[in-house]
Amino acid sequence: MNNFVFQNPTKLIFGKGTIARLATEIPADRKIMVTFGGGSLKKNGVYEQVVKALAGHTYVEFWGIEPNPTVETLRKAVALGKEQQVDFLLAVGGGSVLDGTKLISAALRYEGDAWDLVLHPERTGELVPVASVMTMPATGSEMNSGAVISNKATAEKFAYYSDFPKFSILDPEVTYSIPDFQIACGLADTFVHVLEQYLTRTGESPLMDRWAEGVLQTVVEIAPKIRENKTDYYYMSQYMLCATMALNGFIAMGVSQDWCTHMIGHELTALHGITHGQSLAIVMPATMTVLQAQKHDKILQYGERVWNVMSGDENARLVKTIEKTEAFFRSLGLATRLGEVNIGEDTIAEIERRFNERKVAFGEAGNVNGTVARAILEAAL
User: Fold this and answer.
1) Does the pLDDT value for residue 253 go beyond 80?
2) Which of the 8 DSSP states describes residue 362?
3) How many Å apart are CA 44 and CA 162, to the nearest integer?
4) Could you tell me the pTM of the whole model?
5) Burial class (CB in 10 A: 0-12, 13-18, 19+), 126
6) How many helices (H) and strands (E) are present in the chain, helices listed first?
């Protein structure tokens, strides 16, 4: 097991009716900026609950943080926040709204451009406190310090790290109105978050392995139930908690991590606007195929414990496990091949060029460069 330091300061407030807790969780003397995505929050009752809970607080609203938040939009929020001298941020929406708000948190106290902080995170200084009301399970951003920010002008998308939310409110009832495709993408995102931390090396931590496998097994179990009835509180609550537990650091303690699937997926999103979870459903089975020799023992363990793949020789079990993984994504209604989303050689060449130009080396073995990324994308055609 590797050395590690673990700390997660986020207070998680989970369950029905918990949005009302905003009234007491945010100090009354704070000047708040509430950040939102689209207008659907005014249709599903979330906005009304937030406004009611913030009665007596002083706040301004910023609307329009898009999926895969862009620095172009976030600059406008930063300008409003500076003008209004806000000293507390409340993100209301999905992971993209919270991701964007994390960058706003740093940029409000920074004299330069917000994109500078993404490219040079060491310049991050004082942070304005952030909290969240999550309305879409997927990213785990509600209980980690990470964000992913896009730049439309340069067609780039990079990770950025600032601080953990002070608290996050998760009420499963607000998820009932999420479109089916977004639920499918969220389930895929949750599943791949776990695989990125799990599908590496065997023998590092039996405890982390079992914990990760428990999340994977739960997602597999609940996914068809949610597709049958997305207003079932029990199953949506399990989904919401799985998404949080998948990326709050709990299953990563002392173990190797990969993340090459995410890095390739980010490029597909930056270049073509593909929904993040959809990009992962395409890339992950191909990553497993190309890196199956490197991940051999862990894929066999994953196949046995999550998919009950135990018959046949090792090669047959490897193939069957990868097939089961791809079939799961297809069962969600997602594409699993680049051709299905009209992506071909031009994009593969551009991603290879970007990886080589940046001299990146992703994966637990540090060997996923432009050449390997091309092989993975070719396997996903």
Assistant:
1) yes
2) B
3) 30
4) 0.95
5) exposed
6) 14, 8
